[in-house]
Amino acid sequence: xYTQIISKRAPFYADVPEEKWNDWRWQxxxxxxxxxxxxxIFSLTKSEQKALQTSGMFRVEITPYFISLIDPDDPNDPVRxxxxxxxxxMQSFTAMMEDSLAEDRHSPVPGLVHRYPDRxxxxxxxxxxxxxxxCTRSRIVGDPSQTFSRQDFEAQIEYLKKTPQVRxxxxxxxxxxxxxxxxxxxxxxxxxxxxxxxxxxIGTRVPVFMPMRITQDLCDMLQEFHPLWINIHVxxxxxxxxxxxxACDRMTRVGIPLGNQSVLLAGVNDCVQIxxxxxxxxxxxxxxxxxxxxxxxxxGSGHFRTPVAKGIEIMEGLRGHTSGYAVPQYIVDAPGGGxxxxxxxxxxxxxxxxKVILRNYExxxxxxxxPTEYKPHDPSxxxxxxxxxxxxxxxxxxxxxxxxxxxxxxxxxxxIHDRHGLQHRLKxxxxxxxxxxxxxxxxxxxK
Length: 447
Ligand SMILES: *Cc1c(COP(=O)(O)O)cnc(C)c1O
Known about the structure:
Number of helices: 17
Bound molecules: pyridoxal-5'-phosphate
CATH class of the largest domain: Alpha Beta
Radius of gyration: 25 Å
Strand order of the largest sheet: 1-2-3-4-5-6-7-8-9
Low-confidence stretches: 1-5, 432-447
């Protein structure tokens, strides 16, 4: 068992009886959100005070457990930066967007984001145990008036029932594990009644903000809904405490595979050594690093953004240097709704007919000789190829590889390159089609 860090309580909580401290309802109802409350734990900087006194800011709440992880003497403590707002949060930046992933456009019904062929993101609540300052869904999260209604839920279930290509439902929000146990159980029960839903996933930061919520009772309930996968969200090694380790242990013991999603954050974890320590500590508590996200172009997160090169440098410092199990995939979630795009250092240096030149993490350069006689896979004699469920819509790059098409063109491509027709369109302005470049807005309509 992992026993390196026994987490402390902030001195302010020294007299709270053990059974209260370990009760997640007590933690939730004693969250801190105001200057006066924070000042009891540590003194705030001018920038923090200013942000906390500004109205209309993204919601602030921090559990007593999580705030206790902050070093009171360090204004740049990595946990502190994630949850205490600073005045920089009010600064806008170019390319900033409210809904940078265009989730609302991909929602057939409120709260259900169907972006990929076989899986959906289901937003089940807008509430969290504490609020991350760089929240990608700050347009709805934290606002109780935006919470999804019973009708929304029924509409989500209806959509899933009539959409058989969905085999994977990812519950998120907000945080599904702050829901009342009865409601969470009902959601899971209703999903399990749909035969084509093969796996259910939960994305949650509750184990990190409030590990006492991961009770044995909760785990016993969750294990009725296997196959169930959970991704937690840890950004810095100092969040990995004995309590988190024990919460993860309870979940893995009921058979839930655990992954971790981190966000690359300036001043918090934009460092190869911190990231290596983080992923190694995660594997020790049997949590597999899944994704490391580039910070989204969301309002309020400008001061957390790093160049993409920082992510590539981190991946360079992980792959080969530590266990493969500890290496996450670095992802840029495409602005405008393009979905998750993996970004990696280049390991392939060159190639010829039958030779590929590769380099390893140490800079060792090697030649892999490819077979000169390769009998290609024959789809007509492969039962998997025959039974393959067709993907609706455009099959993208895979489609090109399968010979289903010869090219993929940006919108307006033919018109732009049609020099002859251009003359006619210039005469008839109504037919002019601008090239499909936009700042998050759909603006390819004929003007
Ligand atoms: C992240 C995400 C998923 C899940 O993506 P995976 O790569 O399968 O983990 C599904 N739908 C949406 C809209 C997402 O943003």
